[in-house]
Amino acid sequence: MCYSGVCMELGERLSRDLDGNFMELVTLHQDLVFGVALRVVRRPADAEDVAQEAFVRAYRALSRYPAERVRELKLRPWLARIALNQARNWLRGRPTDAELDQAAESRAVVGNEPVRLAVRREERRFWQALLDELPPRYRLPVALRHVEGLSYAELAQTLERPVGTVKSDVHRGVRLLRAAYERAEQNNRQREAV
Amino acid sequence: MTSTAINGNIRQGLRDLRQPAPAGLSAQVGERLGLLEGYVEVEGPIGPLYVAFGPTGISLVSRAIDPGQFEEEFGATFGRPIKRLAAAPAQVARAIDAYVWGRSARRGPAPVDLAQLPDFERQVLLKTLEIPRGEVRPYAWVAAEIGRPRAVRAVGNALARNPIPFVIPCHRVVRSDGHIGQYGAGGPESKRAVLAAEGVDTQELERMPAAGVRFIGSDTTRIYCYPTCRHARRVTAEHRVALRSVEDSRRLGYRACKVCRPVDTPSRAA
Predict the structure, then answer these.
(1) Where is A157: in which H helix or E strand?
(2) Interchain contact A38–B (C-beta under 8 A)
């Protein structure tokens, strides 16, 4: 028997004592919420603001919901959905991706950082570029599935679409990504051969 | 390249794009929602404790009787309400582990919030925080250490008002004459119990001064210490020398331990 309640499900505990357990929810899911925001708004500083706002919204929602609804809540997709909505709100009236990319490009002056870091940064840029080239319909499902690690069920709830749809979106997206990857590799080989 | 290898590369490449949340995110959320301040019930050396904490550290500790009473006490001290939380944030849990139980190393500045106390009281409490687990020092030592050697009684008063007992070990400060001294968190009996729980032989503690012994010296190193100093405890029986005062010790060619820095009571020093 557990009297202190630590062995109860977090949802159960949140439904009984929101203030006492909310910070645990934040600690547990901050990487997910920040990650989802980052996939949409792109800049870490902006994603941090969005994530903060998303948690505040989540807290307010939980304090309004009846206990039963809180208990039944699937916390991960629910939080991911809030993060996504906040991120999209944030994007409204902001410069487009292309303009942001340019700004990011001009800021990224690489000094004498260690080679290992430089290589890693280069690789990340490569994969980010591949992801960015995907049609919008596939980009977010692929990112949420393969970067943030959401399951298909979670992804379906987050995007509010049927599981079958998100599955096929992810598969098509990955197929396109794979084609682009193979082209890039081929180009590389050709360049090396010359 | 095989297709599995390619798929593996894609999966790895995409996974590497993941970034953890910035370190400050959770604190920002907590602050905005007013959830960084609260109190929890934890196990203490002689029964459960209520521990209140804010963003800068532990602010109030009290032996748990009932939550209502603790909330009232907090309100009277800080002029605002406080919420009970189910579990302490990691930083506070670590502090309790290190300072109350000595189970983990202390790291960084002391996690205590003494901002609303007068300078003198804060100095007394921070000095007391330095007394190691399982050891005791006289009130006169605290007074001497903070540069107010004659303020022995004032040290006693400051410790009696210690808002953070158990974390700030006021139970490790005793009278030079061997009496265990007063204790805010439940009187002399509780004080004895807390010290005993830390492995201090409280009977010995009272017996020695009654026999006129204040310090323990080693006749090999010619250093004298407070009896509970870890350097005194490791002197073997055949080399232990009982000493009555600083003057006595000096006359016999002993010097003070640089770790426990023993002093006389002011009346004796004068």
Answers:
(1) helix A152-159
(2) yes
Nearest to A38 among B9, B19, B86 (CB): B19
Q: Please, what is the average pLDDT of chain B?
A: 89
pLDDT in tens, B104-141: 888 777 889 998 899 999 999 999 999 999 999 999 99
3-class secondary structure, B217? strand
Per-residue pLDDT of chain A (194 residues; tens, 9 = 90+): 344 444 468 899 899 888 878 888 998 999 999 999 999 999 999 999 999 999 999 999 999 999 999 999 999 999 999 999 999 999 987 766 555 554 454 445 555 667 778 888 888 999 999 999 999 999 999 999 999 999 999 999 999 999 999 999 999 999 999 999 999 888 888 888 77
Give the alpha-carbon dihedral of A23, A24, A29, A34, to 10 degrees: 30
CB pairs under 8 A between A and B: 107
- Residue A172: CA count within 13 A, CB half-sphere: 14
> Is the Cβ pair B33, A22 closer than 8 Å?
yes
Distance CA B112, CA B23 (A): 21
Residue A154's Cβ-count burial label (10 Å; 0-12, 13-18, 19+) is: buried
Q: Does A147 touch chain B (CB under 8 A)?
A: yes
Known active-site residue B170: yes
Among A13, A24, A26, A172, the strongest candidate for a mutation testing the B interface, having the largest count of B CBs within 10 A, is A26
Interface predicted TM-score of the whole assembly (ipTM), two decimals: 0.83
d(CA A190, CA A146): 29
Residue B269 has pLDDT above 80, yes or no: no
Q: How many Å apart are CA B20 and CA A117, to the nearest integer?
A: 17
Q: Is B10 in Cβ contact with A178 (below 8 Å)?
A: yes
Return the pLDDT at A8. 64
- Strand ranges for chain B from DSSP E: 38-44, 47-54, 57-63, 137-138, 173-174, 215-218, 223-225, 240-243, 255-256
In a 3-state reduction of DSSP, which class is residue B58? strand
- Residues from chain B that touch A143, judged by Cβ atoms under 8 A, are 14, 17
Q: Check CB contact under 8 Å for A52 and B29.
A: yes
B195-211 tens-digit pLDDT: 999 999 989 888 888 88
